[in-house]
Amino acid sequence: MKTKQKWLGALIVGLALAHSTLMNAQKLFTLEDLNFGGTNYRNMLPENRYTTWWGDELVRLEADHCDLVNKNNGKETSLFTLAHIQPLTQSDEHNQMRHLYNAEFPYPGQSIVKLINGKELMLVDWKKGLLMAKYNRDEVQAEEWCAASKAYAFVRGNNLFVATLNNGSTQPTEVQLTTDGSREMVYGQSVHRDEFGITKGLFWSPDGQRLAFYRMDQSMVADYPQVDIFNREATYEPDKYPMAGETSHKVTVGVYDLRSGHTIYLQAGDPTNRYFTNIAWSPDSKTIYMQELNRDQNDCRLVSYDALTGARKAEIYREQHPKYVEPLHPIVFLPWDKSKFLMQSQRDGYNHLYVLNADGTGMRQLTQGKWVVMDVVGFCEQQKSVIILSNEANPIQANLYAVSIANGRRTALDNQRGYHSAELSAGGTHLLDRYSEPDVPRKIDIINLAKAQSAKGKAQSAQHTFNYLNAADPWAGYNVPEYSCGTLKADDGQTDLYYRMVKPIGFDPQKKYPTVVYVYGGPHAHNVDARWHYSSRSWETYMAQKGYLLFILDNRGSENRGRDFEQATFRQLGQIEMRDQMKGVEFLQSLPYVDKDRIGVHGWSFGGFMTISLMTNYPDVFKVGVAGGPVIDWKWYEVMYGERYMDTPQTNPEGYEKTSLLSKAKNLKGKLQIITGYNDPTVVPQHCLSFIAECIKAGTQPDFFVYPGEPHNMRGHQSVHLHERITQYFEDYLK
Asked: Which of 94, 139, 434, 507 sits between 20 and 30 A of 255, alpha carbons compared?
């Protein structure tokens, strides 16, 4: 009897546990969990650790403390706390440090930390308990601090300033370098609309005694009439916006000398219809290198200039191509040989590394193959190698290699799986490797480069790699869909294209499911890679939870597949991309569980352009579409991007006509919702409004929604609202 009671008791407990497990497994996501603007989003991300290098020492950054990390075993010891640092900053109650996540350690071996709060930049010696310097960064529009000279360049009120420390004072002296700065004369900021790899406009020389800076005259550029509706009476707040084929701005490069107090400008000639990019300094701070591109973007020259006089010294290298040349990376000198530099180029069809002498002679290709160098992480001086990220192992992976400068021999540094990024220590001795895999949320390894490279191609071992973090699955206990990846042939019948599929939760192959094609498709982007869940967007999980199948395909024209793959779309944006996407649709239609009558499409920006292109060119295939921030006609897009891929409307009228969606408005059959930020400075509202005007003429009926005051993408919690709206549109018309 007792045995039977025990058995029944165990059964009841087991059933209760099974029921509890089942209930936990059925937890559902909300957009507050999945969207970056959601209230619970951060709790749903894989665990991470914020770190920075202090020379070759690794420091962990937390909100209230900084710890030194033992690179061999991960043990952490305290450096200082926020409570210790706070009084040393001598900041008033309105400018107190709130966290230490932005701490930097610019001087190896010295106990000096660089900190910023809202209005100040500070150097603090935490061991001596001293404030070393404090710079005013209130209302700065751009800034660049220099460790070598402790000089601070910044833009305030549209004008350029430099602050320097004198005679041991903690309060720097500010010198105003320009007086004519305005929205039309822009100093020290990113130019050419952030194209050509440009992300900033201030460039300190290695010795910290000279500052190169951009000056952009856009007085001749037309204003786009943006309006601020949040005042009592709406106010005019125009953006300078150079459209394809129209007048563009003029850029020059100045150099300020701290010693002399004089400013000169590089004698590059007439800047009209030219692009200046990838500014780099020689190791001795005497020469500036700059890549110069014609407006047609098919002729690129690497030119050197005398930093003292501004005189043009020599043309170091020239690259031309019938379609376009796209310089994205400045040259980098070898730390152990100042007479040689590394250059990146797609000259052989794939982005690879080349070694050149400082005068441009003796060019030697360092890496080669049908794969691309995705990033140059830095140099290991001890081993005379360069550390790179590439997709040599697989087109959808990013893996770390050490490449010998002497002979090009590559040594794999990671596990040859997944998608990696890395931060190299200042001395090049260690590498912090962050990565994920389709079934691995996040890992962080610390790699000893000397040991890794001496392994001579052997598999990774504990001898040179320490696993610093192995993050748990933050979605454990939730009902998670199946994520898969595969390939299909492009419309050319030869090229492999990678896709991601997200199947509905509770997938039943006997059922037929509504399917949404998510698309981007444009240059310098990809959707499918070997990260966690194959890099699936969280909204896809939300839709899978609601019973949809999601399909995402990287067509020709997207990134990391080589020059010809990218340039296939030249002068006809959207056409090749659509044909490739339709190969994906054909694949979907061959699957018994895809409902051919319920196929939708959604994308943003270039993806919005693709969404409307597919809806109007294949109106009988797509039942529902949601297009966000869509380009409608490339003649309204900006000069640098638009003309690279389409040439000008004057030289390619057939291409502009063929790709314009204005004439396609009459073809719309399905339900289409267009969404835009009311103050979008990237794809200006003229696109959406013009398409709607054509729909009115043609009698077709798209839906339209705007986010007042928002730019190209919705910020903060408005993104949750946006994705609720996108979801509901498919719920209303596709399900």
From this structure: 139
